Amino acid sequence: MANLKEIRGRIKSIKSIQKVTSAMKMVAAAKLRTSQSNMEQCRPYSKKISMLMNDLLSECGNVRFDLMEQREVSKTLYVVITSDRGMAGAFNTNILKKAQQDIDINGKDNAMIISIGKKSRDYFKNRNFDIVSEHIDFWGDLNFDHAIDMGQEIVDLFISGKVDQVKVYYNEFKNLATQVIKDIDFLPLTESDTEEDKKQVDRLYEPSKEEILKGLIPKHINVQIWQFLLESYASEQAARMVAMENATDNAGDMIKELGLQYNKARQSAITTEIIEIVSGANALSS
User: Full-prediction pTM beyond 0.90?
Assistant: First the structure.
């Protein structure tokens, strides 16, 4: 009977876990609808401003701004975007693994980190990296001001010469089941060499192209950071939803398996009791 009690206890605990994972799945699904909508609304604007930036950079080849300065790389700033919470499958692990691989190539001593999300902060802090700043506990109230603050911080580090290049790591949302790891060479600004970004449109510029480019660069930086944050947040909710759905299904399978074990153990116990009763009755009659 002790075995039966143990199995009942396991079934009860797994059912409790199943309720939690099911609730987390529903919460992630609700957050995903909002975050995906915000991300998809920002994508066209982000794409257009990038194309306009590329056109201006190609047409103003003789003009150079501070954020376009090409230097010999001695220090690299890694901006690694993760979530504050786990239970999202390999969402955080994959992005941290990718960033770590690139840091190993260039050398830990040449790396400076901006951690966005607790998982990023904890990972690099536990490995004694040079963390310039950390941004945590803001995802629930995510807004454009966060992108402005992060963008200004990145720009200040680059212009001051503390870092010579900036790389950004985040998860790009493709669909519910797929998030793609992206590593972007963020600074210095360079002209894109992709065919899509090279498409130029005949435009009239007022005032000059150089003045427009000067005013557009800060907006471009902030919008790109904002897009990275939106992509990462939507990817996190999708990854958590899928992970919790899988966990709920696995819990259901475990409950079924334990139910079979319980029935077999109960049947065995009943059979044993019947044999003992019959044996006792035979002994008394004889």
Answer: no
Output the pLDDT for position 200. 56
Residue 97 belongs to what H/E stretch? helix 91-106
In tens, the pLDDT along 42-93 reads 999 998 888 888 878 777 666 667 788 888 888 999 999 999 988 888 899 9
What is d(CA 269, CA 274) in angstroms, rounded to the nearest whole number?
Answer: 9
What is the fold, at CATH topology level, of the domain defined by 2-20+244-285?
A: Helix Hairpins (1.10.287)
Integer CA distances (angstroms), 34 to 3, 39, 81, 137, 142, in order: 48, 9, 19, 18, 12
- Sheet bearing 111-116, strands edge to edge: 131-135, 111-116, 76-81, 165-175, 178-187
Of residues 269 and 199, the one with the higher pLDDT is: 269
CATH number, span 41-242? 3.40.1380.10
Express the helix, strand and coil content of the chain in percent, nearest 5 each: 65, 15, 20
- Alpha carbon distances (Å) from 47 to 52, 203, 229, 233: 9, 17, 15, 19
